[in-house]
Amino acid sequence: MIQNSFCFLKSGDIRIEKILWQEGVKNWKDFYNLNGSSELKQQEIDLLGNELKEAEEEYGSENSDYFYKLFPESENWRLFKDFEKNTMFFDIECTGLGFNDKTTMLGTLFRGKFNALIRGQNLSRENVAEELRKAKLLVSFNGSQFDIPFLEKEFRVKINIPHVDLRFTGYQIGLRGGLKSIEKELNFQRDEEIQNVDGFEATRLWRNYLKGNKKSLQTLVEYNKYDVENLEKLMNHCYNKLKKKRLNEEN
After folding, report:
1. pLDDT at 7 over 80
2. N or C: which end of the chain has fewer CB within 10 A?
């Protein structure tokens, strides 16, 4: 979708992008075949062309940060397919929501592989930083409001990786509520054993594990695994819906 986009260019915006799309310029290749515009001045076209050359160089270098900083926040979902192979889906579990609560585990899905960093085992500042650094794009649900600030505070790390928060991306296609309610709306499935596990139950599972119940930890990890796997499904759903919506908009 990045190569369909012009709104991130310094001389561009959503209005100019729509003008180009309406005039048949649906991607960067089309732009270079543009022989003038009925609405844009030649000076505007020349400026856009010069900026597009820079964007092509950054695209070739797989510089996700470059595009993330330039795209309007509401459009950062457009980075997904172009950086899909280096996208990490992540979610944390914690002891509670208070100021002094702690992360119990960080679950990630990267290139199809699930990884769990668990408190008391392998969850540390160094491992959190190393794990997240693998990604050129992070995807979460409400991570901008919760997961990232929580991790940054507890582990004293700064997470500057481009990030798509599906809670807010979903708003654009009418998806409201928490991740579990959205999963039900979209018919995403979970095993019967963890269908009724929620954030409150996750804290209870951790307490039971600390009391010696190893099965509780297995259930907690499985619950988190479904979270991040369903984030990938939700990201694809939002991307496909929004791409179709944007390219078919006439106004």
Report:
1. yes
2. C
Instruction: Name the residue range of residue 88's domain.
Output: 82-241
Residues in the chain, total: 251
- Residue-level pLDDT at 251: 44
Q: 117-126: long-range contacts at Cβ-Cβ below 8 A with a sequence spacing of 24 or more?
A: 118/217, 118/221, 124/155, 125/155, 125/156, 125/157
Sorted by sequence, the CB contacts under 8 Å of residue 158 that are 6+ apart come out as 152
Q: Output the six-digit token pair for 175.
A: 């998806």
Domain count, the chain: 2
pLDDT at 37: 82
Q: Which residues of 102-121 are buried (b: 16+ CB within 10 A; e: fewer)?
A: ebbbbbbbbeeebbbbbbee
Contact between 59 and 2 (Cβ < 8 Å): yes
Q: With a cut of 80, say whether residue 98 has pLDDT above it.
A: no
146 and 23 within one domain = no
